[in-house]
Amino acid sequence: MHIKLKAFGIARDILGGGEVDFQWEGRADVTTLQKALLVQYPRFQNVASIKIAVNEAYGLPDQLIGPEDEIVVIPPVSGG
Length: 80
Fold this sequence. Notes:
CATH class: Alpha Beta
Oligomer: single chain
Number of helices: 2
CATH superfamily: Beta-grasp domain
Structural class: alpha+beta
Shape: globular
CATH topology: Ubiquitin-like (UB roll)
Radius of gyration: 12 Å
Number of domains: 1
Largest sheet: 5 strands, mixed
Strand content: 25-35%
């Protein structure tokens, strides 16, 4: 499956840009995407947590991802 990832903060640095084309084989759900990102971009293993948003809402672990979905990689955030 081919999708476009949007990223901010440290996730943008790790992916090498604010928008990245990403491809992987097999089932396309949020958990699988998170695992694939850890494999393809090992620096994510040093980040406390990475969340995935699908179409402007936090993705559920077993939520399926389609090629037309807007996917955003969300790094840890802190408030103030």
